[in-house]
Amino acid sequence: MFKKILVATDGSEYSRHALAAALEIAKQFGSEIELLHVIMKHPNMIASEVTVGIDMTSMEYEALSKTVMEDTMKGIEAGEVKIETKIVHGYPSQAVVEEAKKGADLIVMGTKGHGPWAGAIMGSVTQRVVSNAPCPVLVVK
């Protein structure tokens, strides 16, 4: 049913919960997981989707993204589930939707992230993904 599960991460605790939920589903269905982190294309443009500081070089963003991936996976046991990590540049919600169009059967993401609206009922990135996704989206608290 779910061959490929896309998990969007920004390094938040909600992202870790999303990965844990995706792993449970993947174990049941024999799925593989793509763990995706998006580096803002133009950090000054949309402050509500920024997950990191603005004054950073491209290399610093790449290093931070790798840290985000490591932090998201820290202490989580994947077992037999294949997890591929991917870092892309763009606007988070748009990049997640575009990546899902490449063959994801399910998107799993947290309700909130690290952005300035982290206290909102559901994060703005999550809302945009739910509205535009080409496949089902599981939103995890």
TrEMBL record:
Source organism of the structure: Youngiibacter multivorans
Localisation: Cytoplasm
Record's signal peptide: none
Family: Belongs to the universal stress protein A family.
Keywords: Cytoplasm
Gene3D superfamilies to which the protein is assigned, alphabetical: HUPs
Protein name per UniProt: Universal stress protein
Transmembrane in keyword set: no
Pfam family for this entry, one: Usp
Domain UspA: 1-141
UniProt cross-references to InterPro entries, sorted A to Z: Rossmann-like_a/b/a_fold, Universal_stress_UspA, UspA
